[in-house]
Amino acid sequence: MLRHTKPKKRLTRFRSVTEQVGLVGLGNAGRPIAQRLLKAGYSVKVFDLEKSKSEFLARLGACVASSAREAAGKITLIALPSSREVVKAVLGKNGVLEGLKKRDILVDLSGTAPQTAKKIEAEAKKRGVRFLGATLHASGAPAVTLAQGSAALVVGGDRRVAGEVLEIFKTFAAKIILVRDVAIPKALKIAIIMMAVPGHLAAAEAAFWLAAQAVDPRLLYRVMSETGSLTGVRYLKRILQGGIGQGGMMRNTKKDLTLARSVAKKIGFSLPFMQRASQILRQASAMGLEKEDLPKALRIFYQSRLGVNLKTSLPVEVIEGAPRKRPAVIRL
C-alpha cells in the first residue's frame, strides 16, 4: 500500500525574514562583507563616516545612509575598529539603536571589549532589540579571506536569534561557531591576540639573535619545519617573509593588548608579559609603524634597534581564491 506524504517545503533564503541588511563601518572588514552580501543578492544599506567608502559600494548597488540611525534595519551589522567607535555608532546621537524597532537584530562584529558587548546588550534589551556579539577571524588578512568568504566567525548570544541570521553569516564566513554569551567571542579574540603577540616577538628576537652571530635564520626555519615545531615555525615564517601581506595593522594588535590589560586591571589580575609586549609595540609605533602588519613592524623595529640587517627572507605566499566549501556551523 502506497503512502502519500506531503512534499517537503523548500528552505527559503533569509530574504523571507528581511530584504535589507544594514551595515555600519566599511573598513577592512565591512567593505568585503558588504560586497559579499550584494553579490549574494541582498539589499544592503551602508554607512561610514568616510563618504568615499559608501560611494564605492553605491556603485555596486548598495543604498547609502546619511547616519548610523538611518542604516539600521531588521538586521544590522556593525564592523568598526574599537569600543569607542562602536559605542558612539550604536548608543550615541543618531546611533543605530535609535533606528531599531522591537524584535530587530543587532550584530556587533567589531573588535571590542567584552564589557562593551554587555553594555550594548543591556541597552538593546530595554528597546526589545535582540543582540549578538561576534568576532571575525581572518588569519591576519581580512581583506582577502572575507572577500573570499573563507573567514571564521564566532557568535555569542541566543542561538535562536543566531539561527535567524545564519544565512547572512554564511555569505562571508566559511565556519560559524556559536557560543552562549555575547561577551565570550570578544574575550576569546583578545586571548588569541595575547598568544600571537609573544609568538611573533620571540620569533623576531630569535631570528635577529642568530643573524647577529652570522647564522642564517632560514636554517632555524628549516630545522623547526622538519622537527615538527609547527606553532613556532608559523611565527618565524612571517618574520622572515617580512610581513603577512594584506594583513591587519599593528595598531589594532596594540589596541587588543590594551583591552586585555584593562580587563585584567578590573579583575585584579596581573599580566606582566603583556605589559612588556605593549611597551615594545608602543616603541614600534613611535617609529611610525602602526599601519604595518605585526610581523613586518617587528622586523623593521628589531633591525633598527639592534643594528642587525636581516638580509635573508622567505617569499610571501599569495593567498589564492580556493574553491569555497559549504559553510560549517559549530555549536559550543
Write down the Rg: 22 Å
Residue share in helix: 40-55%
**Mean pLDDT across all amino acids:** 88
CATH class of the largest domain: Alpha Beta
Strand content: 5-15%
Q: Output the number of helix runs.
A: 15
Oligomer: single chain
Q: Biggest β-sheet: count, sense, barrel?
A: 9 strands, mixed
Distance between the termini: 45 Å
What topology does this entry show?
Layout: E1 20-24, H1 30-39, E2 43-47, H2 51-58, E3 63-64, H3 68-71, E4 75-78, H4 83-91, H5 96-99, E5 105-108, H6 114-126, E6 130-137, H7 142-148, E7 151-156, H8 159-164, H9 166-172, E8 173-179, H10 184-212, H11 217-227, H12 230-241, H13 250-266, H14 272-286, H15 294-306, E9 328-331
Parallel strand pairs: 1-2, 1-4, 2-3, 4-5, 5-6, 7-8, 8-9
Antiparallel strand pairs: 6-7
Helix pairs in contact: 1-7, 10-12, 10-13, 10-15, 11-12, 12-15, 13-14
